[in-house]
Amino acid sequence: MGESRVLSRAEALELGPGWRHACHALLCAPCPGRLFGRVPLRHAVLMQMRFDGRLGFPGGFVDPQDGSLEAGLNRELREELGPGAAPLSLAEGDYLGARCEETPQRLVAHFYAKRLSLEQLRALEAGATKAKDHGLEVLGLVRVPLYTLRDGAGGLPTFLSNSFVGCAREQLLQALGALGLVPEAELHRAEAASRKGL
């Protein structure tokens, strides 16, 4: 996405005809592990490698027959994540916000977040290769490194230097802060380091 503006859910739903709505979700779980026995992992956060080589979140366009944003999102999650997504049911309470842009198309990107148990998240990862869209729209799942290594570049700063689809990078940063998954000062340092080209 190019220049986008932030909207509330109500504002996004009041946009008239001619606007397409897409819904995506950050799925996360507490992760008590330590990298190399010393670097705390904190949480497991899932993103996916897309068909175009960019990172994004599971989800997609809401179809008119879906009936609601959440119904469209849950359908997309089942298509992209496979059988492990069947018990998931994202609801309006999981809504974090929306961004819209008018060019090149009139698009509203709705964003949700849901905390899972580590067992639920691992089941999603294990079943993802059985998803309808695996190997087509979705090339695989990745976990976001929520730490910064001693060199100040490895981990989250380097991850943020990747190519993201649309506003996925901004959504990731928003969610990491809003959900308290990364301390705010560390999040700002990682974001700044990624913009400096490491």
| Dominant shape | globular
Helix content: 25-40%
Order of helices and strands: EHEEEEEEHEEHEHHH
Q: What is the structural class?
A: alpha+beta
Distance between the first and last residues' Cα: 24 Å
How many H/I helices? Answer: 6
State the low-pLDDT regions, or none: none
Classify the beta-strand content into a percent band.
Answer: 25-35%
Q: Which radius of gyration do the C-alpha atoms yield?
A: 17 Å
Largest sheet: 8 strands, mixed
Mean pLDDT: 91
Number of strands: 10
Describe the structure concisely.
By secondary structure, this protein is α+β, with helices and mostly antiparallel strands. The protein has helices at residues 9-14, 69-81, 118-127, 156-160, 168-178, 184-195; strands at residues 5-7, 20-30, 34-35, 39-40, 43-50, 55-56, 59-61, 95-101, 107-115, 138-143. The model has no long low-confidence stretch (mean pLDDT 91).
Question: What features would you highlight for this structure?
Answer:
single chain; 198 residues; alpha+beta; 8-stranded mixed beta sheet; two-stranded antiparallel ribbon; 10 strands; 29% helix; globular
Tell me what you see in this structure.
It is a single chain. With 198 residues, the chain is of the alpha+beta class. It has helices at 9-14, 69-81, 118-127, 156-160, 168-178, 184-195, and strands spanning 5-7, 20-30, 34-35, 39-40, 43-50, 55-56, 59-61, 95-101, 107-115, 138-143. It is globular. It starts with a strand and ends with a helix.
